[in-house]
Amino acid sequence: MDYLVVGIASYLMGSIPFGLILTKIFLKKDIREIGSGNIGATNALRTGNKLVGYSTLLLDIAKAIIPVIYVKINYPDLVYIASLCAFLGHVFPIWLKFKGGKGVATYVGILFSINIILGLIFVSSWAFIFLLFRYSSLSSIISSLSVPIYILITSQINDAIFFAIMFILIFFTHRENIKRLKNKEESKTKIY
Length: 192
Prior knowledge:
Layout: H1 2-14, H2 18-27, H3 41-45, H4 50-74, H5 79-91, H6 104-114, H7 116-133, H8 136-153, H9 157-173, H10 175-182
């Protein structure tokens, strides 16, 4: 029963579409009709409103931190269930016909909740790749790969399986970006 409750609660928390909510409230627009049509923080920045963009980023991170930390403290054996379900809630929200964001900000919240070092590895890798190439998508893909590689190097094989699955999911959510990167059609991201 704990599995079910933790899974559903984490999914519902992860499925809150903050990008959609904030653009509707503050800009009177539907984020799904702007830029890539994605509800995540990168597309929220494309609205031109930095407050909406960065608020979406922080709230998408927080919606993973809240359930994962709660479960880590109260049901430590279920932390990966909570993490996966919060991520899937963001990517496939029931409220939006299962069409959500790409999950990167939510994944950052998961990483920092599970182990702050993993969060720092992801963020520093993301920043380094972004400064070199200016593609948010490329930074996200490579950084999500850096986490299971780090875990394998530090001999935590069981944990590496979970983070390898997360990398595959992030790779999947970025499949259109990967096509655009291959065709040199991906647009560079301005974050400031």
